[in-house]
Design goal:
This is Alpha-L-arabinofuranosidase. The protein has 679 residues and is an alpha/beta fold. Helix content is 15%, strand content 32%.
């Protein structure tokens, strides 16, 4: 996405007020049920989890006030030199031909602010108009000469936006603008930069699943951007780079599939050892000025997205931007929304001077949202599963190393205050009122109180609420946590799971239990006295996330292992087989063909059936069969004039599929009720 700095002059503040109706209260009988499962572990909160972007066109990049505000918000990573400017910026001369470079924004000034903030830096090397030698020189200056210890280095920014797919906003002087050329240079950059400092981590730009131009194969390419880049540069990189501007405020349900599909691509294309490759979301914003980019709706979506992305293993999520500038001014939920994608006010005005932002560095609502996330989930905490039964309320939870538990609840209703009832599995809260942190619509700070109980709270409209709980007791001598599980021999119905042994506590370990996550509920798949278990009775084509728990001879249990996610296949042999081929994809829909082969007795009439994996998928049209869709279920029946399918005969049908989120393809097909082998 192109980034254009807005540098309007400071002017007087115009205060807009609106009358708001009193909040409605949901009846106690309809209290929202919040379920928290301490046995269902997700990712550990990384040191670099909360981040933001700094831009060289921001006059306030290096000020102490800005650094102190970022520190108070809990920012742990700062990215430089700023979006698309990265591909025109030359660090040695501190110039960006064709762009504006503000005074006092050079690399040393940035690093001074990083240190004052207490964060780590991430630097984007110039791919568009730079060279590998220039990037290596920057590494030398940063880490050898200045001893800054910059660990994370990106190669370019949104380089798929160079015109190769039709739309051009990113500078790229290379005659060849293909993903293959980008990958070739990533290898050269990585070699040159690591020759200077072999400890650094190199990141390559990918497209984000279901976001343009993801999945598109341009003329002359051997595959999509991600396939080509990972196949060629995978062995040389340490992390991949995603950007996400969802626009709508209800897209956080896309996160698990977005990240899993990225991991699947890394595993498929990046070569041996690809599990080392991390995922960084180096630009994120709710991206919707009409829905509240500086007011509470955008803040609620931001907190939800940060928690969701980090819980799914992204090692940094970086807000765009610290300062950005006034945009389209609207009224959102009783407050002026300035259409500004910054965390902090730039103090800028509209071009006609009729509306000005608050004073420079005044925090906008998303600032408090990220501050709340930093208080809810601290580095070293482990996310655990949480869920609610009310669509207007979302919940996240994290377990701290000392045994405490924090629950973040987000009420997106504009007018209803919800009572909630919290239930816990694998955790017993201490008696007494817990610590409660809250941020409400229009508030200019997070309040901290001791109120309610561990099982009952009330969520104001448009609010963020974090409840911090202590356990009723700390059990000494518990088993240690089992190590990261791995999976092998996955079939349609079975999988073998193996894990490093847990360290015994005061008593020997009696057994290990394997638990499957099913929302915020876990179900035990089996147990064993060893460190390997083959689980049975699985469903074909199903994604499973499991944790391992150790139990000692006295019944005490460990904390859950890190999560393992795998997907079952289809039968190795069947009376039918199906091959799904994507012929073309345009990032919101695709054309597919399906080859159906009958390995059984001749058929006089047949129906192929499958179910869309996600609610945002649908059938557009189909051919060579009679196609119907009911709910998420799709059927393709033989055309009346051609009902027969002989033994070992193959027929080909096709369809157009539509999607508005990560496109998890159907993988389980039945022919006349029999599950087919999917090739």
């Amino acid at each position: 996405m192109p980034k254009v700095p807005l540098r309007a002059a400071l002017a007087a503040l115009l205060t807009l007020t609106a009358l708001t109706a009193p909040a409605a209260y949901a009846d106690e009988s309809t209290a929202v049920k919040v379920t928290v499962n301490a046995r269902a572990a997700l990712a550990t909160v990384p040191e670099t989890g909360l981040g933001t972007n700094h831009a060289i066109w921001d006059t306030n990049l290096g000020t102490d006030q800005t650094a102190d505000l970022l520190k108070d918000a809990g920012m742990k990573l700062l990215r430089y030199p700023g979006g698309s400017y990265s591909d025109i910026y030359h660090w040695a001369t501190h110039t960006a031909p064709g762009g504006y470079v503000a005074p006092n924004t050079d690399f040393d000034t940035f690093m001074r602010g990083v240190r004052r903030t207490g964060a780590q830096p991430m630097v984007t090397a110039n791919y568009g108009t730079g060279t590998a030698e220039e990037a290596a020189g920057w590494v030398r200056e940063a880490n050898i000469v200045k001893k800054y210890g910059v660990k994370y280095w990106e190669i370019g920014n949104e380089n798929y936006g160079n015109g190769h797919y039709g739309s051009a906003w990113e500078a790229d002087d290379h005659a060849d603008k293909s993903p293959n050329e980008y990958a070739r240079h990533v290898v050269a950059y990585a070699d040159a930069m690591k020759a200077v400092d072999p400890t650094i981590k190199i990141g390559a730009v990918l497209t984000t699943p279901a976001n343009w131009p993801d999945a598109i194969t341009a003329e002359g390419d051997s595959g999509s951007w991600n396939k080509v880049v990972l196949s060629a540069a995978g062995p040389k990189i340490d992390f991949v780079i995603l950007h996400w501007y969802p626009g709508a405020l209800d897209r956080n349900g896309h996160v698990p599939d977005m990240i899993q599909l990225t991991r699947d691509q890394i595993a498929k294309y990046a070569g041996p050892g690809s599990e080392r490759i991390g995922i960084a979301m180096t630009e994120f914003n709710t991206g919707s000025s009409s829905n509240g980019s500086t007011t509470q709706p955008g803040a609620l979506a931001a907190a939800d997205a940060y928690a969701s992305l980090l819980a799914n293993g992204v090692f940094t999520v970086d807000w765009w931007n610290v300062h950005n500038g006034i945009g389209t001014v609207t009224e959102v939920e009783g407050h002026t929304d300035y259409g500004d994608f910054g965390l902090l006010s730039s103090g800028s005005c509209t071009s006609d001077g009729t509306v000005c932002e608050p004073a420079l560095n005044t925090p906008f609502a998303p600032y408090y949202a990220l501050q709340m996330v930093s208080k809810f989930a601290r580095p070293g905490d482990r996310f655990i599963r949480a869920a609610t039964d009310q669509p207007k309320v979302t919940a996240h939870a994290a377990r701290r190393p000392n045994g405490d538990l924090a629950v973040l609840m987000i009420n997106t209703s504009s007018d209803t205050s919800y009572p909630v009832q919290l239930a816990y599995s694998g955790f017993t809260p201490a008696a007494g009122a817990p610590t409660v942190l809250s941020h409400t619509n229009g508030a200019t700070a997070i309040t901290t109180t001791t109120s309610g109980t561990a099982t009952t709270q009330t969520l104001p409209p448009l609010s963020l609420t974090t409840v911090v709980l202590k356990p009723s007791s700390v059990q000494a001598g518990r088993p240690g946590t089992p190590g990261q599980p791995t999976v092998s021999a996955v079939t349609d119905r079975t999988a073998t799971i193996t894990w490093p042994a847990a360290k015994p506590g005061t008593r020997p370990i009696a057994k290990y239990e394997v638990h499957r996550q099913n929302g915020a509920i876990t179900e035990q798949l089996g147990e064993t006295s060893t460190t390997t278990l083959t689980v049975h009775n699985l469903k074909p084509g199903t994604r499973y996330t499991v944790n391992v728990i150790a139990r000692d001879t006295g019944g005490a249990t460990s904390d859950p292992s890190p999560p393992l996610t795998f997907t079952t296949g289809t039968p190795a042999t069947s009376s039918c087989s199906v091959k799904l081929t994507i012929q073309t994809d345009w990032a919101s829909g695709y054309v597919a063909s399906i080859d159906i082969t009958n390995h059984g007795a001749p058929l006089n009439g047949w129906t192929l059936a499958f179910t869309w994996p996600r609610t945002w998928q649908s059938l557009g049209s189909g051919w060579s069969a009679v196609w119907t869709q009911t709910g998420s279920d799709v059927k393709a029946a033989n055309e009346p004039a051609n009902p027969s399918l002989a033994t070992d005969a193959t027929t080909t049908i096709g369809y157009v599929g539509n999607y508005s989120g990560p496109n998890v393809l159907p993988s389980v097909f039945t022919l006349n009720g029999t599950v087919c082998t999917t090739e």
